[in-house]
Amino acid sequence: MYLKTLHLRQFRNYEEQKVEFTAAKTILVGNNAQGKSNLLEAVELLATLRSHRMARDRDLVKEGEAIAQIHATLERQTGISDLTLTLRRNGRRSVALNGESLRRQMDFLGVLNAVQFSSLDLELVRGGPENRRNWLDTLLIQLEPVYAHILQQYNHVLRQRNAFLKKHQDSVGAQGFAPLHQELAVWDAQLATTGTRVIRRRDRAIQRLAPIAAAWHANISGSTEVLQIKYAPNVPLEQNQPEEVQQAFLTKIQQRAVAESYRGTTLVGPHRDEVELAINQTPARQYGSQGQQRTLVLALKLAELQLIEEVVKEPPLLLLDDVLAELDPYRQNQLLDTIQDRFQTLITTTHLSSFDSQWLNSSQILFVKAGE
Ligand code: ATP
Ligand code: MG
Q1: Matching NCBIfam families, A to Z (predicted)?
Q2: Suppose 213 and one of 73, 95, 303, 320 were both cysteines; which one would form an S-S bond, judging by CB atoms 3.0 to 4.6 Å apart?
Q3: Which one-letter DSSP state was computed for residue 356?
Q4: Under 8 Å between Cβ of 296 and 121
Q5: Model confidence over 46-88: pLDDT tens digits?
Q6: Residue 345: is it exposed, middle or buried by C-beta count within 10 angstroms (0-12/13-18/19+)?
Q7: How far is the CA of 341 from the centre of ligand 1 (A)?
Q8: Topology of 1-113+314-372 in CATH?
């Protein structure tokens, strides 16, 4: 797929800026705090309706304005699409495809696919499990847009159930926990049904991604180090049928019932799951140098690109935010060789010296200064 144009209005530090992409590779060069990452973030939002910087909508809208708009034209094998995302300071969003506004955000997802790779991604290895869950969810949204809806349903039930638990925290009456649990039963059933959908999809995605990532990792590290990725749900997933997983979910909830009423929060479910990254059976977080951790993240990102390409049958965009400078020359080449002209790539940098002349000659170069 090929992003032809991008039009930003009152987005971040951009007042109004149209960009036309004229090559498979675009290098955005400029000093710090000029708007390079902001532009990549706009593309990321069109692809996932999420920002990996975890920005709230009121931070995305230009200071002093109420509305921001991101508009793009995209060429796919199926034809040209026209995407518009409108963001408001009050958090209300609207999406339109080819000029028609869409009721469900899920119908907007999956039109533009993109993999984002920035220095923040090191948190995938070093950070807590929520980083890996977010990463996996963002990937899944692109692989099967209906997942966005499933996740939303789960989070909705989770919030309701948490609110109920919080309200009744420590209020165990003379009859013990029984009355509380009768009321909770409604939420439990919904949590188990929606949670099972989340768990099974996450597990399936990791099973597909793991061998691809392991192959890239072996390739880049050029050694016998073996990368293992495993989805580790806190509800046992040995069973194959959704009904069996739901049953296991409910059993686990019963086991944690007392702890849940003391803690006033839901302790069972995919919001507490982990994606285990290990190298030669050693958890990656405790393992190795920063360079080795970067190799792992690079392998994950290349695997994402490949998996999305396999599933959607078209190469996604690659958004590289300041990562080249962090890789050694060998890994830089590994990445650049893989991209070649296979993936349309937007790259930010503060100086062009990281690129060789062949790259510079074949790339579109945009100078970014103060939101222009
Ligand atoms: P670096 O090289 O440091 O990564 P960058 O060019 O990637 O820089 P961006 O993150 O794209 O920088 O842009 C940061 C600039 O955007 C900052 O000056 C910040 O104040 C400004 N900015 C961010 N959000 C808004 C907003 N909502 N309204 C106005 N300006 C904003
Ligand atoms: Mg930046």
Answers
A1: recf
A2: 303
A3: -
A4: no
A5: 999 999 888 899 999 999 999 999 999 999 999 999 999 999 9
A6: buried
A7: 29
A8: Rossmann fold (3.40.50)
- pLDDT band of 292, cuts 50, 70, 90: confident
CB 267 within 8 A of CB 256: yes
Closest to 256 in 3D by CA, of 248, 247, 266, 246: 266
Q: Is 64 in the pocket of ligand 1 (CB under 6 A)?
A: no
Cβ atoms of 34 and 28 within 8 Å: the answer is no
Closest CA to 345 of 315, 325, 369, 372: 315
What is the complex's ipTM, to 2 decimals?
A: 0.99
Q: Where are the domains of the chain?
A: 1-113+314-372, 122-313
pLDDT computed for residue 178 by the predictor: 57
Q: Which two tokens stand for residue 35?
A: 């708007």
Question: Could you tell me how many residues make up the chain?
Answer: 372
Whole-prediction pTM value? Answer: 0.94
Q: For 106-152, what is each residue's pLDDT tens digit?
A: 899 999 999 999 988 999 999 999 999 999 999 999 999 999 999 99
CA distance 184 to 186: 5
For residue 38, the CA-to-ligand 1 centroid distance in Å is: 6
- The rounded distance, in Å, linking the Cα atoms of 20 and 335 is 25
What CATH architecture does domain 122-313 belong to? Up-down Bundle (1.20)
